[in-house]
Queue: 3 jobs
Job 1
Amino acid sequence: MDYDADSTALVVVDMQNGFCHPDGSLYAPGSEAAIDPVGDLVDRVHDADMPVVYTRDVHPPEQFDDAHYYDEFDRWGEHVVEDSWEAEIVDDLPVGEDDHVVVKHTYDAFYQTELEGWLNAHGIDDLLICGTLANVCVFHTAGSAGVRDFKPVVIEDALGYIEEDDREYAVDHCEFLFGEVTTSEELSVG
């Protein structure tokens, strides 16, 4: 699959210490295993002068204090709290000077963020999506991209997960509902 660097961006979802590092509160070995494949994609995309967007899941400590239903701390425990080491992108994925970082407060990187406006301002139509967790933030971000008329393309061998079945579920549903799925090997950027 060929993607034009002028109208495509790589979206790296939540490759943060809290999820990818063994000392993280929501560490999953599958997320740590995604670091190298994601890093390889970032390198290829940088070489092609294609934009890279990193998302960071960040929660202010009081975010869910008045929640009626939606409370990620209740669901997952306290994680990636604002200004914490957990909320930082892993050291193995250095953010480039021209890369864009989106701070989000929920699973969906488009919800109450500037992501859609930034992509539109840069003429982006297609999104190559990788990162973690496959069936949570990657899935919700890809679906949200699709309903906003961006073409989401999930890179299945560059996804973090808790259980292999979670990754398979997310990949199958992404392909079925709103986008395409490919592998790093099948991907051509330039």
Note: The chain has seven helices and eight strands.
Job 2
Amino acid sequence: MTAHVSPAVFHPSVSPEACPALVLNADYRPLSYYPLSLWSWQDAIKAVFLDRVTIISEYDKVVRSPTFEFRLPSVVCLKTYVKPSRNPAFTRFNVFLRDCFTCQYCGTRNDLTFDHVIPRSRGGQTTWENVVAACSPCNLRKGGAMPAEAGMHPHQKPYAPTLSDLHQNGRHFPPNYLHESWLDYLYWDTELEP
């Protein structure tokens, strides 16, 4: 995937909707990387007025009311630390991220859904340890069969990932849009290569 870094200068006709704010925790790390913690410009301004965040960086884009003018924040930092969750949520996105957005049967990245390795009709549960990313054709081909019956075994045994696992995998799939003011706050905790 390719990330497009947008320059700090905006054309005046750019819509405020194209100006989300990166949200940092009080330790100056994003609240989440995957998906990246972003607020709409309205939510960012509301948080500023409620004194819940500090503006770290701004866009050149200005919004106006009859009595007020405000530069849109591009990076905000919470004033109160929010303790991150210790375990990732069991969501479709996180299953795809754990499996690197790849069908665990054929390796394609197209038309992804998820598959129960042990089918629900055979007592399989919807858990980290029994669900894998699968393309629709492979999912249909496997159907309600057990892996041995279908001759289809996942490339990687499904497992409950840690936040670190998802964080590591997510580095290979940056968001399609990164504003240059965000770059100093993303991936700074990445281990440097010698």
Note: Strands lie at 4-6, 21-24, 38-39, 53-64, 69-78, 112-116, 131-135, 177-179.
Job 3
Amino acid sequence: MTMFTKPEQFAAANKASVDAMLTLANTALASAERIAALNLNTARSMLEDGVSNAKAMLGAKNAQELFSVQASLAQPNLEKAVAYTRSVYEISAQSKEEVSKLLEAQFSDFQKQVFTLMEQAAKSSPVGSDVALSAVKSAIASATSAFDSMNKAAKQVADIAETNVAAATNATVKAVGATAAAAKK
């Protein structure tokens, strides 16, 4: 009993596997490209901001003015760091989502192939083998249920993590803003 009864089926399965791998590779490369562009833009911005901030601090006439300038620079710098972190997180989350969709589709295709194979086996199996086929079908159903449960749990964890990242980011920005405002007084 083989999964592929015709060479065309084998070729189609191989093509589907290659297509899936290409999609996965393209997703990874697109994410790497976005991260590289983000890093380059962030480095350029940090250099420009560093020069501007140094000029502002060098223009201070006394220590109190220097501390005031430093405090006024803290909030924008933190907001940029938070925006960078948020962008990295969003790129990662989008990549994870694309990979998850691909894996779900692959699992679904595999499951369909197994069910087709089981039906073919049931048609050509000897009398009395229906108990074994039922056990295999039950095991496949259990594996599918476990996969679905695991997938739902992973999505819930991702949603909770995203909510926590957003809350922590907002709290940090507010805390630094309050500290900077207090330092100005």
Note: The chain has a mean pLDDT of 82.
